[in-house]
Specification:
With 203 residues, the chain is mainly α. Helices cover 63% and strands 0% of the residues.
């Protein structure tokens, strides 16, 4: 779904709820504005779970297609962002369940989003040595996250990459706050087991 230049400028000041209502009435530009507003975040969630740019782009596109087709069933129009994120997470879960013959390469480029999972590099590493070690650790972290279950990948991605709080994640995934806390705790423990003292996921 591509948006033409200038098509959404008149909609920028409207709330998601306003845009959803207009989209339900057949205003395609209103949905294009929703697409422009939420695309980066949905792609970031998808990439955080799938660790593959092509798969993340496909999942993001599919999430918006499904949202558009199901828009009439969305009653809480102001909750569009969370509803869309849940659709994306479900799509990513389905993708992760598919059998894969070829494993993901550790040389795969990182998405160009400013946010990224970080590992703490030992303080005694300096200069070029530190930069090289940092890149290597990011590759190790991406592989470790990819080995988590889909549920654990989802909560790690949304909490540590997207900065979402526990309550918002619970709303998106349709589970209790306690369930999210439990999944985060288990996912962090698994990452610590795989990565040792280098990973900092305490917040």
């Amino acid at each position: 779904m591509n948006t033409a230049p200038g098509t959404t400028s008149a909609y920028g000041d409207q709330t998601d709820a306003d845009l959803v209502r207009r989209a339900k009435e057949g205003d395609e530009r209103a949905f294009e504005s929703l697409f422009g507003r939420h695309h980066k975040r949905i792609f970031s969630i998808a990439y955080g779970m799938l660790r593959n740019e092509a798969d993340a782009a496909d999942a993001t596109q599919e999430a918006f297609v499904r949202a558009y087709r199901s828009l009439a069933r969305l009653e809480a129009e102001g909750a569009f962002g969370g509803w869309l994120a849940q659709i994306a997470v479900n799509i990513c879960r389905d993708i992760l369940k598919r059998p894969r013959v070829i494993s993901r390469s550790l040389d795969e480029p990182v998405a160009s989003d400013e946010s990224e999972y970080r590992l703490e590099v030992p303080d005694d590493a300096i200069g070029p040595e530190r930069a090289s070690l940092d890149r290597e650790l990011q590759q190790v972290l991406r592989k470790a996250i990819g080995s988590l279950t889909p549920d654990h990948q989802a909560v790690i991605t949304m909490h540590h990459l997207e900065g979402m709080d526990v309550l918002d994640i619970a709303d998106v995934l349709g589970v209790s706050e306690g369930t999210i806390k439990s999944r985060l705790s288990r996912a962090r423990a698994e990452l610590r087991r795989k990565l040792g003292y280098y990973v900092n996921l305490d917040t």
